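Hi X.,

You mentioned you wanted examples for the new student's onboarding notes, showing what a folding record looks like when two proteins sit in one file. Here is a clean example. The first protein comes first, with its sequence line followed by its structure tokens.
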Amino acid sequence: MTTLFGKRFRTLKLGGAALAAVLALGLIGSHIARGQVTPLQIMALALGSNDDEADNLHVKGPSDILQTLLVFQPGAETGWHMHPGPVVVIVKSGALTETHSNGCVTVHPAGSAFFETKGEIHNASNQTGGVAEVYATFLSPSGAQALIPAADPGGVCRH
């Protein structure tokens, strides 16, 4: 069992950012085609989208920002934990299964993006037969650890 990941993520619509990246890459491609090398290259590592509206990137005071690639082998999980600030997540490949403190489960497939909110207890796992790759950007108060272990809240999902 591998532990490492994060909290309940809410989704972020990346339409404008994705469009800007595509346009920038098109400009870079046209320079390269003409034999010119640009001083700025934007290389997309992962792109995700979600239709939910979210307003979760609130960080006050000095902050640490940690950008990570989390590689979940089949059956790997983070263990129950929370984060001291918001986390932005993009599922690059595979799928990430998130168990919330209320016992309900959300499956985030490849290509999805979501937010985890400050202080929410959850567990993330790879319940597929293949590797899941997840990009996570942690925004934490300066000096705080990005992932804080927590006890299983024992919630039972009631839909």
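Then the second protein repeats the pattern, sequence line and then tokens:
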Amino acid sequence: MKTTLYKYLSYIYPIGIDVTSSVYNSVIEIQWQNGVKVLNSDKANFSYGSLHQVFQQGFKHYNLPNADVQSILILGFGGGSVYSILRNELRYKGKITGVELDDKIIKAAHQHFNIPSNNKQFTLINTNALTFVSNNKSAYDLIVVDVFNDLLIPKSFLTTKFLQQLNELLTSKGKILYNVISQKNTLIKAIEDNEMNYKTTSINYYGVTNQIIKINHTKNKTT
């Protein structure tokens, strides 16, 4: 009963239901907004709000995941927006690996957003995405990059080295979907320095323009 009431009232004003903090985020808040439970930081939506809509449009625009995609890596798992789109909306049944630095956000994902425990088709790892990419040897058909500190991507994720490392984790037909806001030019320069093939689409929600950049696997790229 309370959940239903919150859901309807949230069309009038946001209703906060839980708030905490962590080493990495001064505010981690669960709210009902416009009938949907969302995860927010102090300045940005982490999951299920505008970010959810951005990736809905991004997957649709690039027709992903398609039949070639059997394994997906999500860097910056957050509360699980991308996971939810893949499993619940696109009915993707392949293997998903998620990487999230903040253990408090992982706890919120399980507690508030029905993200399951690890199983044969899903693994959620609590670690730094840079560390994971540097040490991992698995190959993926699709890598989704959504690594933000509020509205900015840490500079280490915008380098030619990081893109080279991602490229090495792709299968021969693999692709990267990279979500970026104000640092588009920095990312594109790194992509072009690596001579990687890419396409970009702009998605605007609530006055913020995101760029979802699709990067194709590049042969014979080494670090």
